[in-house]
Amino acid sequence: MVTYSRVLGPEFDVFEDDSEETLVGSSVHQGAIVAINEGIDDCAARRELPWFVGNQLTLVFPRQGERPPAQPAPDICLHPTLTRAPRTSLLVAVDGPPALIIEVTSPSTALARDLNMHSETGKPLLYEAIGVPEYLVFDPHGEYLGKQVWARRLGPHGYVPWTPDEDGRWHSQTLGIAFAPQGFLLRVYDQDGALVPLHGELRDENGELRAQLATEQRRIAELEAELRRRRDE
Predict the structure, then answer these.
(1) Which residues pair with 187 in a beta bridge?
(2) How many helices (H) and strands (E) does the chain have?
(3) What is the spatial distance between Cα 157 and Cα 227, in angstroms, rounded to a whole number?
(4) pTM of the predicted protein model
(5) Count of other CB atoms within 10 angstroms of residue 107
(6) Residue 52: in which H helix or E strand, if any?
């Protein structure tokens, strides 16, 4: 049964669906996606919320007439009511739009797609048109933005800037969680404002967050090697 009637107009015929080239990024890119996915998913699991967190899941946005649907695959999408059951796609006409979409920039997507607010070939206008309330772009190296986070939320007349609060975090109005950069990662803060530990992190007997030294050293070495490689290119 159709529950969401909004469709994309012909101006979005120029939008190209994601391909293997636009989805496959560096180890830094993929590591950032995994960390965001883990953090959001843990926020849902702890409170038994019916959130579905998609990692490069295909979204099917209907177009007017007989034209085929647009099918972007954002790095992270969060739908608040679909539960954690596995899915191969999200049908916006049936399920409604995600509450939050996050893209992690890469050389093939940053300026032309993730940040392009001036053309229907970019993702911001597409997500705005279909009614996605919050959209955040994370740039691990700050090389495309001059900073690490660029974010928008839906206002009465389209997307408006979504800025950090005084604590330096981007707080989601729809979900009650928040985000802030930490190194090359975008960390997640839960509904109580606590930093959500990564799956490679532990809490000591006093309840304070500490990283497993070996894991952190290996991650830092990998990121430094990736940064050197990118600088040499």
Answers:
(1) 180
(2) 5, 13
(3) 39
(4) 0.82
(5) 13
(6) strand 52-55
